[in-house]
Each structure stands twice: as C-alpha cells, then as structure tokens.
Amino acid sequence: MVAGNGLLFPIFGFASCVAFIYMSFGDFILTNHREQRELSFVERNGTQFMVDGRAFYINGWNSYWLMDHSVDEDRKPRVSAVLEAGAKMGLTVCRTWAFNDGGYNALQVSPGRFDERVFRALDHVIAEARHHGIRLLLSLVNNLKAYGGKTQYVNWAWEEGIGLSSLNDSFFFDPSIKRYFKHYVKTLLTRKNTITGIEYRNDPTIFAWELMNEPRCISDPSGDTLQDWIEEMSAFVKTIDKNHLLTVGLEGFYGLKNPKRLAVNPELWASSLGSDFVRNSKVPAIDFASVHIYPDHWFPHLEFEDKLKYVSKWMLSHIEDGHYELNKPVFFTEFGLSNLNKDFQPSQRDRFYKTIFDIIYKSAKRKRAGAGALIWQLFVEGMDEFNDDFGFVPWERESTYRVLTDQSCRLARIQGITQQNNYLKELCLQRQ
C-alpha cells in the first residue's frame, strides 16, 4: 500500500543514506561530541613556564590511577569526576602514570606488546583532561615495583636469557633493557589518540613527560650510571617529540659530587642513592627540575613544627639552585603529609600545604624559579582501597579545600586571570 502512493522508496532511500553516514562516521560522531578546549603548548623561558607569552604558575595534583580506572567501565566515571573537580578548584595540571608494565590491566604486556584496550583508556584520560582544561604531566616508568617499574623490565630481559644481570639497577645500563624502554617511549609518544585523532607528541593537553618516577641507582652512589641514562634517554625523547617539556622525575636529593649542598639533604643516606638534583637537572634536554617533599618519611620522629622549618629550607635551597645554577623552573611535583603520624591532626595538613603554597607564591611574585606544586594525592568518594596515608577527597574538608583554591586564585592573579578557565574566573571573582 505504501509503495502504491510512492512513499516507500524515498523513505527507504533516506534511511539508507543515514545508515551509510553512521556506518562511515559513527565513531567520529560518538567520540567527538564533547567540546574540546583550545590549549597551547607550555614552553619555558629561563626559570618560568610560559603559555601564550604569559608566565604559567601551577597549582595542581597527583592522581596516579587515571589510566587504570579508565579501563573498566564501572570505574571510568571517577576519572571525569576528579578532572572536573580539579578544574573547579582552579587546578591546572594533573600528574599521572602513563605506564603499567606487566600484571593486571597492563599497558605493556611484554616488551613491545601492548594491550589496545588499555591504550584506549589512556586516550580517554587525555581527551577528558582536554575537555576540562587540565594539562597532564605523564610519567613513563616507575623506579618502584608498583605498576611494573624497572623491576619488570629487568625480569623480562632475564626471562628471555638476554639480561646482563638480575640487579634492578641494570635497567639503567643493560643495552637490551634500554632498547625495550626506547621502544616503549617511541610507541607512546607517536600514539594517535583514537578519540581526538591527535598523536600524543602533538597534543598540548600533555604538559610534559617525566622520564621516571623517583629514579634511584643505589648500586652506583657516584651517580655516573644514572647520569648517563638521563642524558641518553632525554636526548632520545627529544628526537621524537620537540613540542613538549621534559623532566627527570627526581626527588631532589643532592649527590656526593655536590658537597656544598649535602647539609640540605634529610640525612646521610640521601646522598648515596645515585641521584643528584643539580647534576641530573643540568642535562641540556631536561627542561625543568622536579622535587618531592615528604618530611614524614624523612624525619619520622621530628616534631611537626620542625618539619615545617625543614620544608622551607628544602624548598628555598632548590628554588635558589633553579635560579642560579640551572636557569630552569623548579617544580615540586609531589608533596604530602601522612595521617599515620602519632600526633596527626587534619589541621596540620592545612598548615603544611599553606607553607608550601606561600613559598611558591612568593617565588612567583619575585619571578624566581619556584614554578608550582602538585599535591599528593586527590581522590573521589569510594576509593579507599587505592588511597595511602597522604591522599584525600578535597571537598570533604572545607578548610583544606579553601587552602587549595586560595592558592589557585593567588597564582591566577599574578599570571592574568583572564587566561584561565571559566571555573577559575568564577572561583576567583568570588574571593575578591
């Protein structure tokens, strides 16, 4: 009957056309429906980070778990939730792992073999960060065993019968292991995001790459082995990606070849870890220095007030080095106060954070090398099993939330609040 009045064929033709368009471009339509913010690459000018010709001072955070949670659909919403929360707090950079070597939800299953499902999870993290106007500091491997780390690389080489040694530090000098790592780095940096269509090395959502989380080479306290590795790997990264900044991932300890600074170290043990803040950070391909702040781990028996005094000394020493020795930004990429201290009070965290934020703010006001800080670490509700003694949900304690957001607004006023996202504009206008 419908065919008789001539309606069926036009309708059928229209439906076929719609089906063809969807089959051809459906993935594009589904994955590009969200607004993607326009971002510029972060650059460096001497001791300052720069964006669009303006100084860029950073208040941000760590959430190491973003890729891992993006693999599973039931945990995926947590990623968007924490990125949105960070943006609403005026935070601008999140540091997270771009590695998981071997084990559960591994990105690199074995040398040169990758799980596309996990790679798509990292695609999602980067796309979500861009949507919320957050830049990412992506770490490439762990010195620790968590998520594989250098131990997994050594085990792979040993199992294949090509490893020179079962020593964990052979990661830094074994030619086979270095080839493994270079292949991983090249694969990651040239990855084309399945959501945005942008290769990682061309995506300004990525603030910078970090060679390793907290590198140590205890087998060579002279520091020469780690120094050679940093020089080789940093140069290799820059042959692939000249758009992004690069850092080592140091904790900030001074080595045996820097005797004038040894007194700044927590204790004698810190000078024998095979790393050296100044020497490692001076490598030409390294764009900025990184430092961590954990007085609880370094001085477990020290009174809280004395810990605060040490934190100030520690930070000012490194900012001075950045200004006079390195001519590079100094970025405090991890800091935290443990809730396991026998005298712990939540109010202590507020004072600890404010001590760090005040030093960063004063450095920024004076245009010195203190470029920003990333709190360790932020979560959303229902993630207790992933927490440690440093993490917290920021909005569960109003005073802590206020300390973090006040710092965002102070730094925004220095660099020009009009350059920030809408969340930050609204937040800071309320604080005036």
What does this structure look like?
This protein has helices at residues 8-31, 66-71, 77-88, 116-131, 149-159, 175-189, 224-240, 277-281, 295-298, 304-326, 346-365, 398-415, 422-431, and strands at residues 43-45, 48-51, 54-55, 58-62, 93-97, 108-110, 113-114, 135-139, 206-210, 245-247, 289-293, 330-335, 370-376. The protein is of the alpha/beta class and 432 residues long. Helix 5 packs across helix 6 and helix 10 runs parallel beside helix 11. The radius of gyration is 23 Å and the shape is globular. Its EC number is 3.2.1.78. The chain crosses the membrane at residues 6-30. It catalyses: Random hydrolysis of (1->4)-beta-D-mannosidic linkages in mannans, galactomannans and glucomannans.
Highlighted features:
single chain; alpha/beta; eight-stranded parallel beta sheet; 13 strands; disordered N terminus; mannan endo-1,4-beta-mannosidase activity; transmembrane; Glyco_hydro_5
Envelope shape: globular
Unreliable runs:
1-33
The largest beta-sheet arranges its strands as 10-9-8-5-4-13-12-11
Radius of gyration: 23 Å
> What is the share of helical residues?
40-55%
Mean pLDDT: 91
H/E element sequence: HEEEEHHEEEHEHHEHEHEHHEHEHH
| Ends apart, CA distance between termini | 71 Å
- The beta-strand count equals 13
The largest pleated sheet is described as: 8 strands, parallel
Class derived from helix and strand content: alpha/beta
Number of helices: 13
Portion of residues in beta strands equals: 5-15%
